[in-house]
Amino acid sequence: MGLDRTLFHRSVVASEAVLSTVEQLQKQLPISLIVMGDQTSASEWKEMLAQLSSPLRVVLVDERYSSLEARDRYWQLHPPKGLQRLLPQGLRQPSVPIDDIVAMLLIERYLNRLIQN
Predict the structure, then answer these.
(1) DSSP state of 22
(2) Which end of the chain is less crowded, N or C, counting CB atoms within 10 A of the terminal residue's CB?
Protein backbone atom coordinates (compact mmCIF):
# COMPACT_ATOMS: atom_id res chain seq x y z
CA MET A 1 0.00 0.00 0.00
CA GLY A 2 1.32 3.42 -0.86
CA LEU A 3 1.35 6.47 1.37
CA ASP A 4 -1.72 7.65 -0.53
CA ARG A 5 -3.41 4.34 0.49
CA THR A 6 -3.36 2.97 -3.04
CA LEU A 7 -3.39 -0.80 -2.75
CA PHE A 8 -0.74 -2.42 -4.96
CA HIS A 9 -0.93 -6.03 -3.82
CA ARG A 10 -3.18 -8.10 -1.59
CA SER A 11 -2.99 -11.82 -0.91
CA VAL A 12 -2.78 -14.45 1.80
CA VAL A 13 0.54 -16.30 1.61
CA ALA A 14 1.58 -19.52 3.33
CA SER A 15 4.23 -18.97 6.03
CA GLU A 16 6.90 -20.90 4.17
CA ALA A 17 6.42 -18.69 1.08
CA VAL A 18 6.61 -15.30 2.80
CA LEU A 19 10.30 -14.56 2.19
CA SER A 20 10.23 -15.54 -1.48
CA THR A 21 6.97 -13.62 -2.01
CA VAL A 22 8.40 -10.47 -0.41
CA GLU A 23 11.55 -10.77 -2.53
CA GLN A 24 9.45 -11.12 -5.70
CA LEU A 25 7.38 -8.08 -4.71
CA GLN A 26 10.55 -6.09 -3.99
CA LYS A 27 11.51 -6.59 -7.65
CA GLN A 28 8.12 -5.32 -8.83
CA LEU A 29 7.25 -2.56 -6.35
CA PRO A 30 9.10 0.22 -4.48
CA ILE A 31 8.74 -1.32 -1.00
CA SER A 32 10.33 0.80 1.73
CA LEU A 33 9.15 -0.97 4.89
CA ILE A 34 7.00 -3.75 6.28
CA VAL A 35 4.19 -3.01 8.71
CA MET A 36 3.42 -5.89 11.02
CA GLY A 37 1.21 -6.56 14.05
CA ASP A 38 2.93 -6.40 17.42
CA GLN A 39 1.42 -9.50 19.01
CA THR A 40 1.51 -13.09 17.80
CA SER A 41 5.08 -14.20 16.98
CA ALA A 42 6.14 -10.70 15.90
CA SER A 43 9.72 -11.09 17.13
CA GLU A 44 10.15 -14.39 15.26
CA TRP A 45 8.86 -12.84 12.06
CA LYS A 46 11.17 -9.84 12.45
CA GLU A 47 14.11 -12.25 12.65
CA MET A 48 12.91 -14.15 9.58
CA LEU A 49 12.40 -10.96 7.58
CA ALA A 50 15.96 -9.91 8.43
CA GLN A 51 17.07 -12.83 6.22
CA LEU A 52 15.79 -11.12 3.06
CA SER A 53 18.50 -10.47 0.49
CA SER A 54 17.51 -6.78 0.74
CA PRO A 55 16.21 -6.47 4.32
CA LEU A 56 13.46 -3.95 4.98
CA ARG A 57 12.70 -1.89 8.05
CA VAL A 58 9.91 -3.54 10.05
CA VAL A 59 7.44 -1.34 11.92
CA LEU A 60 5.20 -2.89 14.57
CA VAL A 61 1.70 -1.55 15.16
CA ASP A 62 -0.96 -2.42 17.69
CA GLU A 63 -2.98 -5.29 16.25
CA ARG A 64 -5.65 -5.52 18.94
CA TYR A 65 -9.14 -6.04 17.50
CA SER A 66 -7.78 -6.13 13.94
CA SER A 67 -9.41 -9.50 13.18
CA LEU A 68 -12.84 -8.22 14.21
CA GLU A 69 -12.34 -5.04 12.24
CA ALA A 70 -11.17 -7.08 9.23
CA ARG A 71 -14.33 -9.16 9.31
CA ASP A 72 -16.40 -5.96 9.14
CA ARG A 73 -14.24 -4.67 6.27
CA TYR A 74 -14.62 -8.01 4.47
CA TRP A 75 -18.39 -7.52 4.35
CA GLN A 76 -17.92 -3.96 3.08
CA LEU A 77 -15.67 -5.24 0.28
CA HIS A 78 -17.81 -8.32 -0.41
CA PRO A 79 -21.46 -7.60 0.44
CA PRO A 80 -23.37 -10.75 1.37
CA LYS A 81 -25.64 -12.34 -1.18
CA GLY A 82 -28.56 -14.72 -0.95
CA LEU A 83 -29.43 -16.02 2.49
CA GLN A 84 -26.25 -14.51 3.96
CA ARG A 85 -27.92 -11.09 3.64
CA LEU A 86 -30.55 -12.16 6.17
CA LEU A 87 -28.05 -13.06 8.89
CA PRO A 88 -26.92 -10.33 11.30
CA GLN A 89 -23.37 -9.29 10.38
CA GLY A 90 -21.99 -10.61 13.67
CA LEU A 91 -23.14 -14.12 12.77
CA ARG A 92 -21.70 -14.16 9.24
CA GLN A 93 -18.35 -15.85 8.67
CA PRO A 94 -16.18 -14.97 5.67
CA SER A 95 -15.64 -17.99 3.42
CA VAL A 96 -11.93 -17.20 2.89
CA PRO A 97 -9.02 -16.23 5.16
CA ILE A 98 -9.00 -12.50 5.91
CA ASP A 99 -5.33 -12.06 6.86
CA ASP A 100 -4.83 -9.84 3.81
CA ILE A 101 -7.53 -7.49 5.08
CA VAL A 102 -5.93 -7.50 8.54
CA ALA A 103 -2.67 -6.45 6.84
CA MET A 104 -4.45 -3.59 5.06
CA LEU A 105 -5.89 -2.40 8.36
CA LEU A 106 -2.49 -2.53 10.09
CA ILE A 107 -0.97 -0.41 7.32
CA GLU A 108 -3.86 2.05 7.64
CA ARG A 109 -3.22 2.23 11.41
CA TYR A 110 0.44 2.98 10.71
CA LEU A 111 -0.43 5.69 8.17
CA ASN A 112 -2.95 7.22 10.60
CA ARG A 113 -0.20 7.33 13.23
CA LEU A 114 2.05 9.18 10.76
CA ILE A 115 -0.64 11.79 10.12
CA GLN A 116 -1.25 12.36 13.86
CA ASN A 117 2.43 12.97 14.62
Answers:
(1) H
(2) C
